[in-house]
């Protein structure tokens, strides 16, 4: 799964730390998601979408490999 | 994040505080078969094995050295406190590490037991069983804390 957390974060001018505090997770979890090492839960995805003011589907995109 | 079945973080410290001395004394008593008379007491038992099979009886009192019972109970309680107290920064990623570590610890602990089934016999197997009572929690604690430490140390590439 691809995500544009880093891009959205840059648009909102948020550091990983600030985003982590607002999303109620650790900074390392934000980092792991940006690196594509961690797929967040639905609740966390919705929180990120709410913080960025976009739809969840604008942040996360399915890849071909997600169907396998 | 809402978590189920986990204890508050402060219990982790209490757990370590009980665990370390218990572990040291426990290891010493197991190796030296240390059984001070002070701990010889009459205890209630639900099944009592006699010398001959006809002497077996249910419910009664027997004399027993309770040091190993005390240590075993303290080991289990303190291990559970350490293993299942929340981390101060518990979030869904740490929950993932928690689950993976529990699966890992179960595999390793039973893996060792399987090997012991095939390679260790008679009274030596009794020793394996003694250690195996505690290894799931022990392996979990080691692996979980190691992974969480690595996770916290992980650096971000761009702020």
CATH names the topology of chain A as: 434 Repressor (Amino-terminal Domain)
Find the biggest chain interface: A-B, 19 and 15 residues
Radius of gyration of chain B: 20 Å
- Most strands sheet of chain B: 2 strands, antiparallel
Mean pLDDT across all amino acids of chain A: 94
Order of helices and strands of chain B: HEEHHH
| Inertia-based shape of chain A | globular
Name the beta content range of chain B: 5-15%
CATH top level label of chain A: Mainly Alpha
Main sheet attributes: strand count, strand direction, barrel closure of chain A: 2 strands, antiparallel
Tally the helices of chain B.
4
Average residue pLDDT of chain B? 91
| Whole-number total of structural domains of chain A | 1
Strand line-up across the major sheet of chain B: 1-2
Structure description:
Chain A is mainly α and 68 residues long. Chain A is built from five helices and two strands, in the order βαααααβ. Chain A has helices spanning 5-11, 16-23, 27-34, 42-52, 56-59; strands at residues 2-3, 60-61. A two-stranded antiparallel ribbon of chain A has the order 1-2. Chain A is globular, with a radius of gyration of 11 Å. The mean pLDDT of chain A is 94. With 159 residues, chain B is mostly helical. Chain B has two domains: 1-86, no CATH class; 89-154. Chain B is built from four helices and two strands. Chain B has helices at residues 10-32, 67-83, 92-119, 122-153; strands at residues 40-48, 57-65. In chain B, helix 1 runs antiparallel to helix 2 (67-83), helix 2 runs parallel beside helix 4 and helix 3 runs antiparallel to helix 4.
Which SSEs are present, and which pair or pack?
The complex is a heterodimer of chains A (68) and B (159).
Chain A: E1 2-3, H1 5-11, H2 16-23, H3 27-34, H4 42-52, H5 56-59, E2 60-61
Chain B: H1 10-32, E1 40-48, E2 57-65, H2 67-83, H3 92-119, H4 122-153
Antiparallel strand pairs in B: 1-2
In short:
The complex is a heterodimer of chains A (68) and B (159). Chain A is mainly α. Chain A has helices at 5-11, 16-23, 27-34, 42-52, 56-59; strands at residues 2-3, 60-61.
């Amino acid at each position: 799964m691809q995500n544009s957390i880093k891009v959205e974060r840059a648009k909102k001018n948020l550091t990983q730390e600030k985003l982590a505090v607002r999303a109620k997770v650790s900074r390392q979890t934000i980092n792991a998601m940006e690196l594509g090492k961690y797929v967040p839960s639905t609740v966390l995805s919705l929180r990120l979408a709410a913080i960025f003011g976009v739809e969840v589907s604008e942040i996360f995109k399915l890849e071909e490999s997600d169907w396998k | 994040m809402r978590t189920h079945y986990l204890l508050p973080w402060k219990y982790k410290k209490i757990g370590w505080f009980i665990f370390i001395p218990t572990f040291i004394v426990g290891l010493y008593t197991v190796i030296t078969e240390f059984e001070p008379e002070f701990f010889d007491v009459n205890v209630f038992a639900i099944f009592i094995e006699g010398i001959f099979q006809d002497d077996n009886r249910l419910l009664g009192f027997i004399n027993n050295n309770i040091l190993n019972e005390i240590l075993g109970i303290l080991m289990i309680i303190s291990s559970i406190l350490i293993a299942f107290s929340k981390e101060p920064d518990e979030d869904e990623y740490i929950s993932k590490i928690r689950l993976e570590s529990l699966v890992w610890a179960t595999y390793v602990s039973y893996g060792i037991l399987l090997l012991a089934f095939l390679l260790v016999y008679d009274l030596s197997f009794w020793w394996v069983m003694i250690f195996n009572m505690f290894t799931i929690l022990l392996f979990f604690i080691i692996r979980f804390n190691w992974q969480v430490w690595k996770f916290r140390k992980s650096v971000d590439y761009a702020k």
